[in-house]
Amino acid sequence: MASISPIPEEPMVAQALPATSLHGGRRGDCFDVLILDDDPFDQKRLARTLDATGMPVNSVSAATIGEFGAALDSGSFDVILIDYMLPDSDGLEAQKMVQSHPTNFAAAVVMMSNRMRTDVAIESIKQGSLDCLDKVELNTDKLRELMMASVKVLAETSRHWLGELLAQQRTLIAQDVAKLVRDEMEFGRLIDTIDKRILDMLAARGLTLADRWDAEGVMDPDPPFAFR
Predict the structure, then answer these.
(1) 16, pLDDT greater than 50
(2) What does pTM read for this prediction?
């Protein structure tokens, strides 16, 4: 039987994961909060209220969508407070920016307004915000509650993301090995058996059983392997 090129011991899944997913929780020793509000008075009031919660908080403020995007790119945040009424956009667009951001997609978004509209609140909740509140409701107790809830949001989002990535890795491994085996069989180098190194690798990853190999399954392009 012809030799087959060695296959790596383990796929480097961890290298593809952000720090949030690997830790499954908050990113640092304090709560990082981003405030998007074009009113300087409300920015300062929210920052003071956050400090008054008695929890370790680091807050950053932005007044425009441009500043908001730059802030998202410059750091990782646990909670993002978004004012719906903005001079150059609206809060729902800002929320979409968070959800599509490679670093801050798991942050807990709170939509706020001087008077929260029902239609805005419904759309924001549909997009996955943690809460939608009038600004007067954002007192120390409520902000403390939101920061604690953000821990659960981050953990759940990271766990879901990790599961999706591992599923993709599993499929890619199966497809790559299936192609390798088909190529070998096409040139007559594999007939009734398969190289034990490949079989052991597949079994270690749950892609097949170590004591049973279905050669016909390899020749079926969809799916490449029958998973347990």
Answers:
(1) no
(2) 0.59
The tokens describing 227, both together, are: 């998973």
Q: How far is it, in rounded angstroms, from Cα 210 to Cα 178? A: 16
Which residues contact residue 10 at a Cβ distance below 8 angstroms, ignoring those fewer than 6 apart?
Answer: none
Residue entry with tokens 């902000």: 143
Between β-strands 31-36 and 57-62, what pairing exists: parallel, antiparallel or unpaired? parallel
Tell me if 205 sits within 8 A of 186, measured CB to CB: no
| 145-179 pLDDT per residue, tens | 998 888 876 666 555 555 566 666 667 776 766 77
Please state, in angstroms and rounded to a whole number, the distance separating the CA atoms of residues 228 and 205: 10
Neighbours of 160 (CB within 10 A): 12
Contact present, 87 and 121 (Cβ < 8 Å):
no
The identity of residue 63, as a single letter, is A
Q: Provide DSSP, 57-112.
A: EEEEEESSHHHHHHHHHH---SEEEEESB-SSSBHHHHHHHHHT-TTTTTSEEEEE
User: DSSP letters of 126-186?
Assistant: HTT-SEEEEGGG--HHHHHHHHHHHHHHHHHHHHHHHHHHHHHHHHHHHHHHHHHHHHHHH
Using one digit for the tens of pLDDT, what is the confidence trace for 115-129? 999 999 999 999 989
Phi, psi dihedral angles at 135 (to 5 degrees): -60, -30
Phi-psi group of 188: left, alpha or beta (phi > 0 → left; psi -120 to 50 → alpha; rest → beta)? left
